[in-house]
Design goal:
heterotrimer, A mainly alpha (429), B alpha/beta (316), C mainly alpha (178), A: 429 residues, mainly alpha, B: alpha/beta, six-stranded mixed β-sheet, five-stranded mixed β-sheet, 11 helices, 11 strands, binds sodium ion, TRAP_DctQ (chain C), transmembrane transporter activity (chain C), cell inner membrane (chain C), transmembrane helix (chain C), cell membrane (chain C)
Chain lengths: 429, 316, 178
């Protein structure tokens, strides 16, 4: 397996698409791993023929419609008005807007694409290096999952049998902590990445200068359509009108109505909106579909299972156990696609964690945050790839900056792991 | 291990350490023992290699060696496979044993032959449970209580047809979505048995349970036809006998713990209703409509034979 | 939308196969747009049907079916537009020749990958067609979504072959220069 991983890095480095490199590795090693080639198409097909995964293309579509219909701009205006007094505000706006988008969407990748497409160009015009812009975009994309609703938490809740409402509540404080952590990193990084330590004046962003002068109530009023969207999505889920997967379709419909009624877009724009969304969805679905055969190889080789079995064996101490599962999940998150990793590791770790007296809701948050962090760690790092694509930056340029955000996220992971009251705050009311 | 060691993979959907998983573990252990280590079986529980449909496809194509299947969820592969979901085939364990666990009975023959047609060999049977109805609205004592209730049903024409005939609004929904849907009130109820309702935490979202026993569900030990053609007669015999033996033991154990699940559910605050004779007769009547409707799907001869078996089991 | 090197060459080269490739891409695009629209409508209508207890079946099955064309035909689309998710370290490489060699290797790798998937994917599709396996809620034959797997692979191979041809045309002068 180790040798195989080296070949994989080799393939990836010459620029072979992720969705081709992973299955090629399996094709080449089928003999050693005792995998019948006939299983390739059925595994691939099974990986994407899944109802919960429908939410990914639909949330990407929602983001695309929100962008065209001006809803993303409304979110940004609100953030800008609230955070404009800070030094280097656009970076903070990127983080805050991602958090707001997180309250609408359940997918990290959809958040990266939607917010990166809107805030990225503004940041670069104001003097941020493209690599830094993309890194910040990729990191803040994690908020798409940390702030409820969240696809991986739904998957964890349904496979382990834990209340999804509780999981969503439990994700709120960790999500806010992550916002603070990223804003702190941005605060310290600006002196390095901005030539003068300050953003350029608001050149090239005409709308911005008008807005800055407007009063907060008038901006809130004008942005009401966008601010209502989280209410519709979360309200609909909590009142049982639709399931979290269906929320993606409802959000898209809402954004379409706002766009067509408000005449911010026309009916004729639809084919363009859909084709953009289809192209970004396809890119991500290809990765999910075809890396699934590598996931299967890992499972057949018993690698994640051994890691899960190893964790409770090494120690009697809860603290060491938690530490070990954190490391294990980070490793899994590096190699496996997020949703697949959640579905696999949840049932493997839940019984052991229960024997240590760890609450299943607490475990769910630890598991999902760790695996989500995998979205920032190559080779399987969807957020980085999508951020690089959205901001039109080479991955290398982005990698220079991402380390600090991963470091900050790790501190948050440590906090939520060892302070159970952070995720379980709602039990105290 | 010598060069002749066969390393086989057994996949299933059931949770680790559930009765079905325990049976799979025992099967693997005994087969290895009885073949003196010639056959080593690795388990992949909890859907690690995909759901029941995916496992069945892989078995059929020879890409997987062994699996535990639930034929009731394979009606897409072949409409005959959920014949045992017809309402009220059996209403107690005595009838179940006479109808379901009779190797020459209509049910077993239909399932074995149909799976074999799709290159899946059936080695033995094990028990799931009698299905019940739970909901968050009100106790269900008579068919009238089902009127207007939003009920999640599995994708089976028989179960769906039964609840619709009784006046419920049925919603077909994948099992992984069910917990959230019940919790948020997207649907009011569902129709799994006590064990699954307890183990999948569905009871957290429900207030009332009726032990309707409208359907008895079982699972099967299966091998791919490809593997089967490669095994020696001796090893085939060992596998068949072991599956049979493990299945019987699982059925016995499963029945012992079934009452415990009902007790646990009651303890968790569910109000449990056992419908009376009169109500059962009314439910039974509705069930018969579904038999009539679905006769063309399963074939008249088969249905008539099954009706006879049911009548015989009842009169005993 | 960012114009990729692959798209670029197809705009510049007017040979017949490349014109044809552009038409094929248009068809792929419309298949994916339709798939996305089907998903949106199927899932939204499902919410309405359940909420108002309308006498319609569960359309969400079509949403799941539409995942297959979006993924597999979408893959061909990504190959053509160069929007696959990659670790693009060589994109910034200085040497033109190095980049061409990488493109050549990627083309070969894509063809090997897609050929294996085409063969086994076709078998899988054909077996499902014979067994008549259906999805349960609406009875959609599983062969319908599965058809898009081999179909997508044929298109991936088609784009990869034209890409190889291009690379060879570009590479030959680059080698002679030295
Ligand atoms: Na979210
Ligand atoms: Na990763």
């Amino acid at each position: 397996m180790t040798f195989g991983i080296f070949i994989l890095f080799g393939l990836l480095l010459i620029g072979i698409p992720i969705g081709i490199a992973f299955p090629l590795l399996v094709i080449a090693n089928a003999e050693t791993w005792n995998i019948d080639w006939a299983v390739l198409p059925s595994t691939t097909f099974g990986a994407v023929s899944s109802f919960p995964l429908l939410a990914i293309p639909l949330f990407i579509l929602a983001g695309e419609v929100m962008n065209r219909g001006g809803l993303i701009k409304q979110l940004i205006d609100v953030c800008d008005r609230l955070l404009g007094w800070l030094r280097a505000p656009m970076g903070h706006v990127m983080i805050a807007a991602s958090a707001m988008m997180g309250a609408i969407t359940g997918s990290s990748v959809a958040t990266v694409a939607a917010i990166g497409g809107a805030v990225g160009p503004v940041m670069m015009r104001r003097g941020y290096p493209p690599g830094y812009t993309a890194a910040l975009n990729a990191a803040s994309g994690m908020l798409g999952v940390l702030i409820p609703p969240s696809i991986p938490l739904i998957l964890y809740g349904s496979i382990v049998g834990v209340s999804i409402t509780q999981l969503f509540l439990a994700a709120i404080l960790p999500g806010i902590l992550m916002v603070i952590a990223f804003m702190t990193v941005h605060f310290f990084m600006t002196r390095r990445v901005l030539a003068s330590g300050h953003e350029h004046a608001h050149s090239g962003n005409g709308a911005k200068s008008d807005d800055a002068a407007k009063s907060l109530p008038s901006i809130l009023f004008r942005s009401a359509p966008a601010l209502m969207l989280p209410v519709v999505v979360l309200g609909g889920i909590y009142s049982g009108v639709f399931t979290p997967t269906e929320a993606a379709a409802v959000a898209t419909m809402y954004a379409l109505f706002v766009m067509l009624l408000g005449r911010t877009g026309r009916f004729g724009d639809l084919s363009d909106i859909f084709s953009r969304a289809a192209l970004s969805s396809a890119a991500i679905l290809v990765v999910i579909a075809f890396t699934s055969v590598f996931n299967r190889a890992l499972v057949l080789e018993q690698i994640p299972q051994s890691i899960a079995a190893f964790a409770p064996m090494v120690t009697d101490s809860v603290i060491v156990f938690l530490l070990v599962i954190n490391v294990a999940l980070l490793l899994i998150g590096m190699l496996m696609e997020t949703n697949a990793a959640t579905l696999l590791m949840g049932p493997l770790l839940a019984p052991a964690a229960a024997s240590y007296g760890i609450d299943p809701v607490h475990l769910g948050i630890i598991l999902v945050v760790n695996i989500e962090l995998g979205l920032l760690t190559p080779p399987m790092a969807a957020n980085l790839f999508v951020a690089a694509r959205t901001n039109d930056v080479a991955l290398i340029a982005l990698l220079r900056y991402i380390g600090w955000f991963i470091f900050a996220a790790l501190i948050v992971v440590a906090c939520i792991t060892f302070i159970p009251a952070l995720p379980l705050w709602y039990r105290y009311f | 291990a010598s060069a002749e060691t066969m390393e086989l993979r057994l996949a299933h959907y059931a949770a680790i350490d559930s009765p079905a998983d325990q049976a799979a573990q025992e099967f693997a252990r005994l087969v290895e023992e009885r073949t003196d280590g010639r056959i080593v079986i690795t388990l992949f529980p909890n859907g690690q290699l995909g759901g029941v449909e995916a496992n069945a496809r892989d078995l059929a194509r020879g890409a997987l060696d062994l699996a535990l299947l639930t034929p009731g969820s394979l009606a897409g592969l072949d409409p005959l496979l959920d014949i045992h979901y017809l309402p009220f085939i059996a209403t107690d364990y005595e009838q179940v044993d006479a109808i379901f666990y009779n190797p020459d009975g209509v049910i077993q023959k239909t399932i074995r032959e149909t799976l074999a047609k799709h290159d899946i060999e059936t080695l033995g049977l094990y028990e799931l449970e009698f299905r019940a109805v739970t909901n968050s609205r009100h106790p269900i004592e008579t068919p009238d209580d089902l009127e207007g209730l939003k009920l999640r049903v599995p994708s089976s024409a028989a179960i769906k047809g039964f609840f619709e005939a009784a006046g419920a609004q049925t919603v077909v929904m994948p099992f992984p979505e069910l917990f959230t849907a019940l919790q948020q009130g997207t649907v009011d109820g569902q129709d799994n048995g006590a064990a699954l309702t307890y183990e999948s935490q569905l009871f957290e979202t429900q207030e009332y349970m009726t032990t309707l026993k409208h359907v008895y569900a079982f699972g099967t030990f299966n091998a791919s036809a490809k593997l089967w053609s490669e095994l020696s007669e001796e090893d085939k015999q060992i596998m068949l006998e072991t599956a049979q033996e493990v299945g019987e033991r699982q059925i016995q154990k499963n029945r012992e713990i079934n009452d415990q699940y009902l007790a646990k559910l009651a303890q968790a605050g569910l109000e449990i209703t056992h419908p009376n004779e009169q109500a059962l007769a009314a439910f039974f009547e509705i069930g018969q409509q579904v038999w009539d409707e679905l006769t063309p799907v399963y074939g008249e001869a088969r249905i008539n034979a099954l009706r006879e078996e049911v009548a015989r089991a009842r009169s005993n | 939308m960012e114009i990729s090197p692959a798209l670029d060459r197809c705009l510049n080269i007017n040979a017949r196969p490349f014109k044809f490739e552009r038409k094929v891409y248009c068809v792929e695009k419309w298949i994916c747009i339709t798939a996305l629209a089907v998903m949106l409508l199927a899932i939204s209508s499902n919410v309405l049907v359940r909420y108002f207890n309308l006498p319609f079946p569960n359309f969400s099955e079509w949403g799941v079916v539409a995942m297959a064309p979006l993924t597999f035909i979408g893959m061909a689309m990504c190959s053509y537009t160069g929007t696959h998710i990659v670790i693009d370290i060589l994109k910034s490489a200085k040497s033109h020749r190095l980049r061409l060699v990488a493109r050549f290797l990627i083309g070969i790798a894509s063809i090997i990958f897609a050929t294996v998937y085409l063969y086994y994917g076709w078998n899988f599709f054909y077996d499902t067609l014979l067994s008549g396996e259906k999805l349960i809620a609406m009875g959609t034959p599983v062969a319908i979504p599965l058809f898009f797997l081999p179909a997508g692979m044929v298109l991936v191979i088609f784009h990869a072959v034209l890409e190889l041809w291009c690379t060879v045309i570009d590479l030959a002068p680059a080698i002679q220069e030295k």
